[in-house]
Specification:
Number of domains: 1
Number of helices: 4
Helix content: 25-40%
CATH superfamily: FAD/NAD(P)-binding domain
Distance between the termini: 35 Å
Largest sheet: 7 strands, mixed
Order of helices and strands: EHEEEHEEEEHEH
Radius of gyration: 15 Å
Number of strands: 9
Oligomer: single chain
CATH class: Alpha Beta
CATH topology: FAD/NAD(P)-binding domain
Strand content: 15-25%
Shape: globular
Structural class: alpha/beta
């Protein structure tokens, strides 16, 4: 049994963005990444701030960045179940059971874990979330293609992950949290 403040299931743009923000701001964060992302088939020309990059190269850079902030990446360890018990999330893999205060689901269009957790779904079979990406299960978030019927873009997914992370950080700090870096921070 291993504990973290935040567990992120999925290592694409949404999951890595959420992990970056939470770890960068002091929360112990674990990411489960099976590397099963559409981004390997993409070439990004429409990602703000990036002129042109292969999807696999983008993922490599993003993983390096979250690693630098101390995210525990469980590369290749697949999550097979999620649930809640005594106010915390239980995340099961074939190797172990992990616990966290917050859960971010970033599994692309695969919504099975959200269904297992008991999240509400919209009429179009997407996971129902509020503007902060929080599901009907308190402190559980869904991001990216899980919550969008058609708008599947890396930059949108990364924004969803950031929104989820900022809400987690706001809850932890007890006030609205903004992650604005200044030249002194960089």
């Amino acid at each position: 049994m291993t504990d973290a403040d935040v567990i992120v299931v999925g290592g694409g743009p949404a999951g890595l963005s959420a992990a970056l923000f939470t770890a960068k701001n002091g929360l112990d964060t674990t990411v489960f990444d099976t590397d099963d992302t559409w981004l390997h088939m993409a070439h990004l020309f429409n990602y703000l701030g990036i002129e042109s990059v292969d999807g696999t190269e983008f993922l490599r850079d993003a993983r390096d960045q979250v690693d630098e902030f101390g995210v525990e990446r469980r590369q290749g360890e697949e999550v097979v179940g999620v649930g809640t018990h005594d106010g915390e999330f239980h995340v099961e893999t074939d190797e172990d059971t992990y616990h966290s205060d917050y859960l971010v689901l970033a599994t692309g269009s695969d919504r099975d874990l959200a269904d297992d957790l008991g999240c509400d779904f919209a009429d179009d079979d997407t996971v129902d979330v509020d503007v902060t990406m929080e599901t009907s299960v308190e402190d559980a978030y869904a991001t990216g293609a899980m919550v969008r019927a058609e708008e599947w873009q890396a930059v949108i997914s990364a924004g969803d992950g950031a929104a989820a992370a900022l809400n987690v950080l706001s809850k932890e700090k007890g006030e609205h949290f903004h992650d604005f870096d200044t030249p002194d921070d960089a």
